[in-house]
Amino acid sequence: MNPSSNAYTEGLSAGTNRNRRSRASQMTRIAVQSYLMLSPQLLGFLVFTIYPVFWVLRWAWYDYDSVQATFIGFGNFERIFMRDERYWQSLLNTVVLAFGKLTVEIPLALLLAVLLNGKVRGRNLFRTVFFMPNIVSVAVIGLLFYFLFATFEGIVNNVLLDLRAISESVNWFGGKWTSMFVIATASVWENFGINMLFFLAGLQSVPKDLYEAAEIDGASRVQQFTRITLPMLAPVIQVVLMLAIIGSLKVTDLVLVLTNGQPGGSTEVVMTYIFKYFFRYGEGPEALQIGYAASMGLVTAVLIGLITAAYFWMTRRMSKIY
């Protein structure tokens, strides 16, 4: 074999090896940089999500008041299922509030999304205005609606009196159902904007050709909405509904600000009920009952998980529309 040919082959092989080592080194640097950039979020996830889950799983079996801990096994769970009627009442309030407000919130968000997806003058302004309540502090929203529905000199009462719809001021926070109505109204106002944007993103992914073909075939706007828009939007509706249901079942701060469970604990929702056992807040128990609160949190998490699983099973066909 020619010596020059051997030298060329060896040089080519060496160059190939150097290129491989260079690519491997570059891939290693990229991987290290990626992990370093992800590490703050991963650390936060471990500290604020994974650790609390195991913490709750541990103390749910104890009678724990932050000082002394006594293992009682299933004692806390027996108390939940056999003796604590207020827990189940708060859970019922949560379900009623969640599904009551969603019957207004989701159709309203979908309607506004359909309207703003068309050629409406100033639609970008409307999108911004409708989304703004979602970025406002819940404490501010609670105070706003508290003063709106105040018994004396509240704007809502004054408007109704001026319209002669009522003869005297309504004590909105004096009864269970009027208080729940105020909470639901505030929650709808806070959340419909973000759901509207989700629907709007889904609508903009629907091919315009479908509407043009339907219009040529003589389909009306209603038929286009029911035969094209809703089926094509089904996967988005499935996800938005799931997030809205879970978020509504976990509502806490808005209830604490508006009613704090009053009057007489009748508007207590499950998360505020658990919160008061964890932190001895408001008219909660006189002593901390962290172990019992952990067991209630565990039972509630399982129930929400079961509701979510049942929802996905019932809506499984919606994800196969495309």
From TrEMBL:
Superkingdom, natural source: Bacteria
Name of the molecule in the record: Raffinose/stachyose/melibiose transport system permease protein
Major site of localization recorded for this protein: membrane
Residue ranges of domain ABC transmembrane type-1 in the record: 91-311
CDD domains (UniProt xref): TM_PBP2
GO cellular component terms, A-Z: plasma membrane
Membrane-crossing segments per the record: 30-54, 91-116, 128-149, 177-201, 230-249, 290-313
GO BP term, example: transmembrane transport
Keywords noted in UniProt: Cell membrane, Membrane, Transmembrane, Transmembrane helix, Transport
Membrane protein topology class: Multi-pass membrane protein
Pfam families xrefs: BPD_transp_1
Family statement drawn from the similarity comment of this UniProt entry: Belongs to the binding-protein-dependent transport system permease family.
Region of interest (Disordered), residue spans: 1-21
Taxonomic lineage of the native organism: Bacteria, Bacillati, Bacillota, Bacilli, Bacillales
Subcellular location: Cell membrane
Keyword set includes ATP-binding: no
